[in-house]
User: Which sequence fits this backbone?
């Protein structure tokens, strides 16, 4: 059993201050800071730049990011970093910004560009050299700050750079940056994090280490997400959601995600539905189909979902949990079926065909997700919840 993680992980309000010590430890002289434009606009990055200025560190700030970044965008960042020649990269933002920052850390010192190192189509090997980085999430969701993967859009499809060297040198999850998230973004990213933890909990690659992280993550996310989404000033709930998301990231990086993510990717690729929403709209339907394969495990979550277990078998408890997942998606204001996204019955074949390509994810499902099962799940998600 093993657990892979960044060398240092900091969590908590004001953990941004750790940057001061890190600058000293690595004797940084020049920093390249990549951040979401909105964080610059609302001056949230001042927390970081004030530290750099107080230490007389030269820095370059870039907001040249996009959602679901393309390979071209990745190369633009690599170019910016090559020009700036920093000895530390800080990535502050959502999953896309963090992916761009971590890919730039690794690719910038190499001979090639992003396309040369992609898993599916790359033609060069990564050498063991990188620019040290600090990855700082501004949402409670993707877990990108603790994983070794950066995803890139390639036309209608996606490819990724995955390499152990991509693991952050320092991950800092300061909930402060999540305080200003709009409800819809907080909801979608929060349910994404919950999906990471639940899928990892029932993954065939789960271990006692990932189980405990996932269980703790589910508990924190499920009991705080509503307040964190709807109550602007409930910082306690936002802090807990942030910690839950970090724990979920650590668990799924090691134990994996499965069917929900496999079926969600085509919704992003073919219909441009954001990642968190794609997972949210499928989560209860996937579990509705696979509970027969994992009810022993899923039913262990009864205390977290506050389910009365007296006189019920594991299947009945697991069905109650699936019901609670349906309720949750609605309670945080997210669409509960595929009709909301204008998906039609004739689209199901394309979705099914593309989900089948996600073999890396599908193999971790406790129930083998063959073509007919996948088609059935998409059909259920199109028809909506059965009361
Ligand atoms: Fe995800």
Assistant:
């Amino acid at each position: 059993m093993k657990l892979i993680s960044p060398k240092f992980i900091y969590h908590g309000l004001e953990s941004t201050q750790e940057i001061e010590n890190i600058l000293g430890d690595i004797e940084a002289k020049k920093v390249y800071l990549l951040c979401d434009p909105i964080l610059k606009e609302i001056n949230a990055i001042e927390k970081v730049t004030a530290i750099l200025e107080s230490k007389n560190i030269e820095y370059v700030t870039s907001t040249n990011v996009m959602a679901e970044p393309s390979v071209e965008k990745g190369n633009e960042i690599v170019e910016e970093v090559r020009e700036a020649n920093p000895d530390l990269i800080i990535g502050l933002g959502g999953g896309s910004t963090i992916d761009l920052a971590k890919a730039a850390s690794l690719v910038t010192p190499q001979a090639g560009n992003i396309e040369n190192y992609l898993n599916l189509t790359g033609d060069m090997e990564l050498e063991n050299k990188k620019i040290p980085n600090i990855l700082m999430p501004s949402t409670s969701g993707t877990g990108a700050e603790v994983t070794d993967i950066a995803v890139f859009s390639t036309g209608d499809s996606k490819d990724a750079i995955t390499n152990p060297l991509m693991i952050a040198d320092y991950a800092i999850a300061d909930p402060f940056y999540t305080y200003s998230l709009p409800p819809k973004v907080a909801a979608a990213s929060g349910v994404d994090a919950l999906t990471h933890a639940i899928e990892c909990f029932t993954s065939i690659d789960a271990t006692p280490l990932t189980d405990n992280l996932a269980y703790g993550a589910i508990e924190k996310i499920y009991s705080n997400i509503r307040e964190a989404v709807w109550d602007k000033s409930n910082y306690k709930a936002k802090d807990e959601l942030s910690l839950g998301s970090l724990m979920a990231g650590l668990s799924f990086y090691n134990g994996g995600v499965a069917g929900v993510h496999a079926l969600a990717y085509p919704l992003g690729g073919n219909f441009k539905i954001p990642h968190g929403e794609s997972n949210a709209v499928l989560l209860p339907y996937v579990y509705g189909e696979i509970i027969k394969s994992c009810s022993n495990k899923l039913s262990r979550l009864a205390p977290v979902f506050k389910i009365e277990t007296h006189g019920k078998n594991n299947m009945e408890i697991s069905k109650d949990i699936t019901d609670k997942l349906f309720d949750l998606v609605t309670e945080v204001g997210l669409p509960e079926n595929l009709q909301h996204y204008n998906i039609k019955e004739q689209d199901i074949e394309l979705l099914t065909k593309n989900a089948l390509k996600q073999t890396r994810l599908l193999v971790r499902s406790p129930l083998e997700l063959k073509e007919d099962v996948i088609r059935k799940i998409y059909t259920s998600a199109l028809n909506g919840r059965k009361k």
